[in-house]
Design a protein that fits this description.
Elements: H1 11-19, H2 23-29, H3 39-47, E1 50-56, E2 62-68, E3 74-78, E4 81-85, E5 103-110, E6 115-127, E7 130-141, E8 151-153, E9 162-166, H4 171-178, E10 182-189, E11 199-206, E12 213-216, E13 219-224, H5 232-239, E14 242-249, E15 254-265, H6 269-273, E16 279-292, E17 297-299, H7 314-323, E18 331-340, E19 345-352, E20 366-370, E21 383-390, E22 397-402, H8 406-414, E23 420-427, E24 440-445, H9 449-460, E25 472-477, H10 486-495, E26 499-504, H11 510-516, E27 523-527, H12 530-542, E28 550-553, E29 578-582, E30 587-591, H13 598-604, E31 622-627, E32 630-632, E33 644-646, E34 650-652, E35 659-661
Parallel strand pairs: 24-25, 24-27, 25-26, 27-28, 29-35
Antiparallel strand pairs: 1-2, 1-5, 3-4, 4-7, 5-6, 6-7, 8-17, 9-16, 10-11, 10-14, 12-13, 13-16, 14-15, 15-16, 18-19, 18-23, 19-22, 20-21, 20-23, 21-22, 29-30, 31-33, 31-35, 32-34
Helix pairs in contact: 1-5
The structure holds flavin-adenine dinucleotide and FE2/S2 (inorganic) cluster.
Flavin-adenine dinucleotide binds next to strand 21, strand 22 and helix 8.
């Protein structure tokens, strides 16, 4: 008989795992949380000249701190016992606070190697600054977000130590936090029913300087990036919002301890604007202890952790938020890089040229691009839409363009680093369904690969809030063996065992899919030439795949005709004459049936009308309809807000007496 496995996670950790859709997978990860220290951890702890500790003071307030002494001060007489011999520095808020029966969280972290191991336990004896701890939880942490730093000991007696206490952050504290790239957080759940998850944790947090925002002298906000999915800290904060933060002045040797109350921010514009952030933590400061010059070390300048290249900071997030209101305006962007992806596909990287950030986007969305009015070759002022195939760091957009006709050829011929172009957006509804637990099939052909790559990066690389631990089948048809993103796909497949990539040099059809996919209940995402998409859609429907499980994007006017779709286009448009008033421009025109759409009528009459894809996809042409009745000329991918209509896809309805538009 097999013994039932007792979860090492408490109820609030499990609640968050459930909320983000990883609870099942984490049940397997439970095996990595041991109640003893492996030999490698024991050897590692014994080498450390400093060690991080989280514990509660006698009032129940958690504090995070760094202990420092000669290597060997942390030892492990056996695999279940941790011994800490001193190391607590004068003025530490935990001085004299630890007694037998108290829980502590420990963290060995070496910035020189980026190695870190966690060990939590219960104090069994506390004498003369020495702690004997019975280990309850021990596990390794990956090195991500840790900045490389080298420490140098300070000669004893050569550094002045001073302890400053206050109820709020001083100007010097705020300055230290604003430039910090690292902090530590101690949190606890000591509830009687917390089971094996009961205890204190101390965790490392790293980011680019400016990743912690000082909102005011009592409040901080910091991002949570993708981690190990245990959710120890967040789970503890849900159970018991009090926490302790530790910031270190690596140049001057100060320790800044904060007693805080933590609050989790699950969504909202600030979170969306912060590249790489999955959630935000807001900290309300209750008490501040600054231990000036306390640490017997100084550190070299950091070498930033590689993972941070794809994360933001608050000044960028603020600029991104400021840009959020400009998604329906043309903005200048500089071309900062051009990469040849295959014989006929080129990627262009753009950075805003107006001093603002890039507006946040959801992977799968696109931007519209307007060719400059001075361009030759007939391309002047032409507008096309291109998927954001990646947004590597929240500071740039990448589009990947196949050389085809007028505009794409012009872009290939003329866009080089240093050039400027106007973009509008992002927009579009072809995005990954957040929170789905179903396996996913991404089906693409030709340049239809771009939204799939964007979504894949969002799911696996960029630390999206939709991080997907369920199976992903990436199925692509490409004419050339060296198709765009070949190496990237191979790298992703090698690094993620939930991703299976199948690329073939002939068109993907239903027969191929049936061979590739185990029987399951999938979400399908389609993008490619119109014929490919229609065939795949119909084939999937014949296999009884529900209509709502099939999402697609068409790169042109010809979209998939859904079977039994409720929103079939109305074609009862007026042939004329119908007066059309553009109230904001003060222009009046007459619809006589000779224009394809209200957008074309507006443009023909000199009304500055926004547009992007001109095919009902991007939503750029949504405008308020103040009076009258319009008919849609096609099924649109974009849903305008209530009271708005898509100018590119509408005409006055037959019988309409007047149309009034808020333009
Ligand atoms: C939401 C959305 C996202 C998109 N994302 C991307 C993307 O990520 N990457 C991308 O490359 N495109 C993308 N497109 C398509 C893009 O907007 C343009 O339609 C495409 O670049 C063609 O524009 P063009 O001016 O070069 O061709 P046009 O001159 O407008 O010609 C249109 C079509 O005619 C045919 N054609 C014209 N000239 C030639 C020629 N010389 N040789 C062969 N065929 C020709 C092609 O089929 C071409 O697509 C997207 C479109 C939409 C609506
Ligand atoms: S221009 Fe894109 S929806 Fe109308």
């Amino acid at each position: 008989m097999t013994a039932a496995v007792v979860s090492p996670f408490h109820a609030q950790e499990l609640e968050i795992q459930q909320r983000v859709g990883v609870r099942e997978q984490m049940a397997g990860a439970a095996a990595f949380i041991r109640d003893y220290m492996p030999d490698q951890h024991r050897e590692f702890f014994a080498e450390l000249p400093f060690f991080f500790l989280g514990a509660l003071d006698v009032s129940g307030q958690p504090w995070a701190t760094m202990l420092a002494a000669d290597p060997g001060f942390v030892s492990t007489p056996d695999a279940r016992t941790l011994h800490i011999n001193g190391g607590m520095l004068p003025g530490d808020p935990l001085t004299g606070q630890l007694h037998a029966g108290d829980h502590v969280g420990g963290l060995g972290l070496a910035p020189t190697t980026r190695r870190r191991n966690r060990v939590n336990g219960e104090v069994v004896a506390a004498h003369d600054g020495a702690l004997r701890i019975a280990v309850t939880q021990s596990f390794g942490n990956c090195p991500q977000y840790i900045q490389h730093r080298q420490h140098t000991p300070v000669v004893p007696g050569t550094h002045a130590v001073q302890v400053l206490r206050s109820a709020s952050l001083t100007a010097a504290d705020r300055e230290l936090i604003a430039r910090a790239d690292t902090f530590f957080i101690a949190s606890a759940n000591l509830a009687a029913d917390a089971g094996r998850g009961r205890g204190v944790d101390v965790s490392h947090r790293g980011g680019r300087p400016g990743f912690v925002r000082v909102d005011d002298e009592h409040t901080l906000t910091a991002p949570e990036f993708v981690g190990n999915f245990f959710f120890n800290t967040m789970g503890n904060l849900l159970a018991h919002p009090r926490a302790g933060l530790l910031f270190i002045d690596f140049e001057r040797g100060d320790m800044l301890h904060l007693a805080v109350e933590g609050e989790i921010i699950w969504d909202g514009p600030q979170l969306q604007a912060f590249a790489g952030a999955e959630r935000l933590l807001r900290f309300h400061v209750r008490e501040v202890v600054r231990n000036v010059g306390a640490l017997p070390f100084r550190w070299t300048d950091p070498q930033p952790a590689m993972q941070l290249a794809r994360t933001g900071n608050w000044s960028e997030a603020d600029r991104t938020q400021a840009a959020a209101s400009l998604t329906t305006s043309w903005r200048p962007f500089n071309v900062v890089d051009v990469v040849q992806e295959s014989s006929d596909v080129r990627s262009f990287y753009f950075e805003p040229a107006d001093g603002l950030g890039v507006a946040a986007h959801v992977p799968g969305q696109f931007v519209s691009l307007r060719v400059p009015d001075w361009a030759g070759d007939g391309a002047a002022s032409q507008i096309r839409s291109y998927t954001i195939s990646d947004a590597p760091d929240g500071r740039r957009y990448r589009i990947s363009v196949k050389r085809q006709g007028l505009v794409s050829s012009w872009l290939h011929a003329h866009l080089a680093p240093g050039a400027q172009i106007e973009l509008m957006g992002p927009g579009g509804d072809f995005t990954f369904e957040e929170g789905t637990q179903r396996p996913v099939v991404m089906l693409s052909a030709g340049i239809g690969i771009t939204p799939m790559i964007a979504m894949l990066n969002g799911l696996l690389v960029n630390g999206s809030r939709t991080r997907h631990k369920h199976p992903i089948y990436f199925v692509h048809g490409a004419r050339e063996v060296a198709h765009p993103f070949t190496v990237h796909l191979q790298t992703l497949a090698a690094g993620h065992n939930n991703l299976a990539v199948h690329v073939q040099q002939k068109r993907i059809d239903i027969k191929v899919l049936k061979e590739l996919l185990p029987f399951d209940d999938y979400d399908f995402y389609l993008c490619g030439p119109a014929g490919f998409m229609q065939d795949m859609y119909e084939g999937l429907r014949q296999l009884n795949v529900a209509d709502e499980r099939i999402r697609f994007e068409a790169f042109g006017p010809a979209s998939v005709r859904r079977s039994g779709a409720a929103n079939a286009p109305a074609v009862s448009t007026a042939t004329g004459p119908v007066p059309v008033r553009f109230v904001r421009s003060g222009i009046e025109a007459t619809w006589d049936g000779s224009h394809g759409s209200l957008l074309e009528l507006a443009e023909a009459n000199g009304v500055a009308a926004p547009s992007g894809c001109r095919s009902g996809l991007c939503g750029s042409c949504a405008v308020g309809l103040e009076a009258g009745d319009v008919a849609y000329t096609r099924t649109c991918g974009s849903q305008p807000a209530a009271g708005q209509v898509l100018l590119c896809s509408t005409a006055p309805r037959a019988g309409a007496s007047e149309i009034v538009l808020a333009l």
